[in-house]
Design a protein that fits this description.
single chain; 207 residues; alpha/beta; Rossmann fold; 2 domains; two-stranded antiparallel ribbon; 10 helices; 7 strands; globular
Length: 207
């Protein structure tokens, strides 16, 4: 089974790319969505012990948590030490289910693919990218987003240029959505003939 790592900085088009893979009936693991589930479930108690003020009505208030950790690297590391292992376990479960279902290809959509070292556990890395101006325009359209918040997000990630340097495949999303979809369709078809070699890194006892 081929394991694809899909990444890119905020506003670069990861979600649209993930949807294109889903349109081809390829299973996608959405790391951000899984984190949000954990914030409302099994991670709540542990996060509450470390960040008591961020749990409201039994759930993590994401806005409050973001304000606590975004500009504080030490606090961010504490949060990542809680969340990343839990997400990793869900990824392992996802891959196990894909194997059981006989899938030939899966996608791990992970914003911090390189930062967490998970690029070493996938067969192919795809980086979505666009210009800084287009990125800023897209992101600032999101509710509650500001230029300062965007700067803080980017400060906690590898630069777009470094991600592109490390990528196996780069997809520029500066054009129309239909153009990006066409690029992805061609990439998907080319990957169908590629053999995966990373599965054992997920199913071995010490993965």
């Amino acid at each position: 089974m081929l394991i694809i790592g899909l990444t890119g900085s905020i506003g670069m088009g990861k979600s649209a790319a993930a949807n294109q893979f889903r349109a081809h009936k390829i299973p996608v693991f959405d790391a951000d969505a899984k984190v949000h589930e954990l914030y409302e479930g099994t991670a709540t108690e542990r996060i509450g012990k470390t960040f008591p003020d961020v749990v409201v009505d039994g759930k993590v208030d994401r806005k409050t948590l973001t304000s606590v950790v975004l500009a504080n690297p030490e606090q961010l590391r504490k949060l990542e030490n809680i969340i990343h292992p839990m997400v990793r376990e869900q990824q392992r479960k996802f891959i196990g289910e894909a194997v059981a279902n006989g899938e030939e290809m899966v996608v791990l959509e992970i914003p911090l693919l390189f930062e967490t070292g998970l690029d070493g556990k996938v067969d192919v890395t795809i980086v979505m990218t666009t210009s800084a101006d287009i990125q800023k325009e897209r992101v600032l359209q999101r509710e509650g987003m500001t230029a300062d918040k965007l700067a803080s997000f980017l400060a906690n990630q590898l630069s777009d240029s470094e991600k592109r340097r490390r990528a196996d495949i780069i997809v520029d999303t500066s054009g129309k959505i239909e153009e990006t979809q066409e690029k992805l369709d061609k990439i998907i078809e080319s990957l169908r003939f590629r053999k995966g070699e990373s599965l054992h890194k997920w199913i071995s006892s010490d993965a």
